[in-house]
Amino acid sequence: MIDINATPGLNxxxxxxxxxxxxxAKKHGGIYSEAVIPKGTYSRIDRDVKTIGVPVxxxxxxxxxxxxxxxxxxxxxxxxxxxxxxxxxxxHISLKNAVNLADIPFHPGAIRYYKEQGVMK
Length: 121
Description:
single chain, 121 residues, mainly alpha, D-Maltodextrin-Binding Protein, domain 2, 2 domains, two-stranded antiparallel sheet, 34% helix, 8% strand
């Protein structure tokens, strides 16, 4: 992954693109939402930028071992502070949001963890 903010000599601009949301949602589904990149998130951004948000999704195939997916899901939530230390946007990861994606099938290992946490029936 490249951190554009830390790339020497790179000039960039983040543009407001929220006006494209209705067309994108119509074509690709309701997973997209209005979002804002707050002023100061990146050193060269001096204003709030309206953008399109998509939730953090951890994807795998149904072939991956259930115990492994359970363990990965568990550690992602139990070690969330470590993720936040790397990137503050990880602070938005939550159990409630994780199960709020009705259009996406869940792996049995993830389902087991979410049920144990009481956020999935």
